[in-house]
């Protein structure tokens, strides 16, 4: 009898080891349960560096960056208040004709009264290789007169779930007439 109890006891312990990490601990009065990282296939966090080019095209018949709010009247020369909605191509090389690996979708606005500085809120939506369908969310301050601007990566979807990190943006060409710009983005991101 004792042997039998011991046997079922062992079975029960083994089962709990398998089942509890999967279903987690459940509190009847809660809408939250803790679950195991491994169960969600989140094994090892890694650090990746992505490099691509962002094309802010305001001119021509197919602009991908469109002013949706003009700068307010009687505001300083910094264009304070202007907002652009973007669906900009992200390419492997610096030329717009090079391979498109995703798009930057969102908007930016001139958010400083006495300097040229943007608030940028956008998603990098990737369409290439294993990252096809995954996206990174970027939200930050872009002081466009500086050579290197840093903005936080605040999250992501798909392969970028739980992502965090930062981007460095460098303008590599700007047409002063059309305001079209090509910006190099170096993205450093921790993800699973
Ligand atoms: C990316 O995914 C979409 C939707 O699943 C698919 O139609 C497209 O062909 C994929 N692109 C590449 C380059 O794999
Ligand atoms: C800027 O754009 C205008 C209009 O497309 C073009 O004529 C001019 O050559 C461009 N300037 C530079 C430096 O590329």
From TrEMBL:
Cellular compartment(s): Secreted, Extracellular space, Apoplast
Q: Which GO terms describe its cellular component?
A: apoplast
Record-level GO BP terms: phenylpropanoid biosynthetic process
Signal peptide coordinates: 1-24
Q: Which UniProt keywords apply?
A: Apoplast, Secreted, Signal
Is Secreted one of the keywords?
A: yes
Question: Does the record's keyword annotation contain Signal?
Answer: yes
Q: Which protein family is it in?
A: Belongs to the plant dirigent protein family.
Description of how the protein assembles with itself and partners = Homodimer.
Entry's PANTHER family? NUCLEOPORIN-RELATED
Q: What does this protein do?
A: Dirigent proteins impart stereoselectivity on the phenoxy radical-coupling reaction, yielding optically active lignans from two molecules of coniferyl alcohol in the biosynthesis of lignans, flavonolignans, and alkaloids and thus plays a central role in plant secondary metabolism.
Q: What is this protein called?
A: Dirigent protein
User: Which gene name does the record give?
Assistant: LOC101252620
């Amino acid at each position: 009898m004792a042997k039998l109890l011991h046997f079922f006891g062992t079975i029960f312990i083994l089962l709990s080891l398998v089942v509890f990490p999967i279903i987690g601990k459940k509190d009847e009065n809660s809408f939250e349960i803790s679950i195991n990282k491994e169960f969600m296939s989140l094994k090892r966090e890694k650090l990746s560096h992505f490099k691509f080019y962002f094309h802010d095209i305001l001119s021509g018949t197919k602009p991908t960056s469109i002013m949706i709010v003009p700068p307010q009247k009687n505001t300083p020369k910094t264009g304070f208040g202007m907002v652009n909605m973007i669906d900009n191509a992200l390419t492997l090389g610096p030329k717009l004709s090079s391979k498109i690996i995703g798009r930057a979708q969102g908007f930016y606005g001139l958010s400083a009264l006495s300097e040229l500085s943007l608030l940028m809120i956008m998603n990098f939506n990737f369409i290439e290789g294993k990252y096809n369908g995954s996206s990174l969310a970027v939200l930050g301050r872009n002081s466009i007169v500086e050579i290197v601007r840093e903005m936080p990566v605040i999250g992501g979807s798909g392969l970028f779930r739980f992502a965090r990190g930062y981007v460095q943006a460098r303008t590599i060409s700007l047409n002063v007439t059309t305001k079209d710009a090509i910006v190099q983005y170096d993205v450093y991101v921790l993800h699973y």
